[in-house]
Amino acid sequence: MKNLITGMCLLVMLVVSVPGQEAHAANPFFTQESPQEETPEQVRRDNRLRAIPYLQEIASLQRDIREKMTGFAREIQSSPSGSAMFKLLGLALVYGVLHALGPGHGKSIVCSYFLSRKGSYRQAIVFGNCLSFAHVISATVIVLLLSLLGRQTNLFEFHDIENRLETLSYLLIGLIGLFLFYKVARELYSGVSHNNEQNVADGKSMAGLSLSAGLIPCPGAAIILLFSLSQDVLWAGLLAMIPLAAGMGMTTSIVGLATVGSKAAALGAVRSYDFLFKVLYTILALAGVLLINVLGWGLFLQSL
Fold first, then answer.
1. Distance CA 234, CA 54 (A)
2. Which of 48-52, 123-127, 168-172 has the highest mean pLDDT?
3. What is the largest CA-CA distance in the chain?
4. Please, which residues bridge with residue 196 across strands?
5. How distant, in Å, are the alpha carbons of 62, 74, 156, 184 from that of 219?
6. Does residue 20 sit in helix, strand or coil?
7. Considering the entire predicted model, what is its pTM?
8. How is the chain split into domains, by residue range?
9. Percent helix / strand / coil, the chain, rounded to 5
10. Which of 55, 114, 220, 301 is surrounded by the fewest CB atoms within 10 Å?
11. pLDDT on residue 241
């Protein structure tokens, strides 16, 4: 595991050090004022937001919170020991909860994983938070490396690196999905009964998925860090990453808790009927691993 983490860190540094496209603006808070400056991915995201009112409302709330956070960051610049710091941390927590409610593959991975494997409520909380913190740490490392390497730190440069890491992340998710599918298939082949559930959640697979999905940096975290960097209060932005990740972890963990609870209730209802238990268990296990594979390989092919 230590070798895996070390290898991923070196890979991230290598990707960051490769020259990318020239940054288009110095302002870290790039707003889509001119359509010709939008990337294809940003256009797809905009169309998706306009198509679903719920996502549009979430995006609007996030913009409002970001505006308030920028005001608090300026206050911190002039008065570091004032109350603005606590207000910034509080808003970062709320921002994290809302940010995780938007579109993303993290919640799908957590849900699919606990559909395919027996898990506890504690594991759901741990997995949800590990995935969210990895997501935020990835953005933090990239912004800091860009700054240390003297690269122009703005959202254009960040998205350039993000796009490079996405393909690798989706590939790793797909490979882990194949491994989980193999384990589920082997268990189902050996036979399943109400007292023989071998395919349980484990730390290694959760860590692998967290690191793989976490390779994709969090854009919300990057926005906060880039602005705090531009205001010479990077330390405040780094502190805000903790409640931001905690807020995202809360939302993602709730999805995991709901999945674990729903699956346990469904299987518990038919536990005394061995045939029904086998059928339902097989459907849920295969559905979970197939969703992880569809998610990983589908996004991988789309990113090529």
1. 32
2. 123-127
3. 68
4. 193
5. 12, 21, 11, 34
6. coil
7. 0.75
8. 2-14+42-303
9. 80, 0, 20
10. 301
11. 95
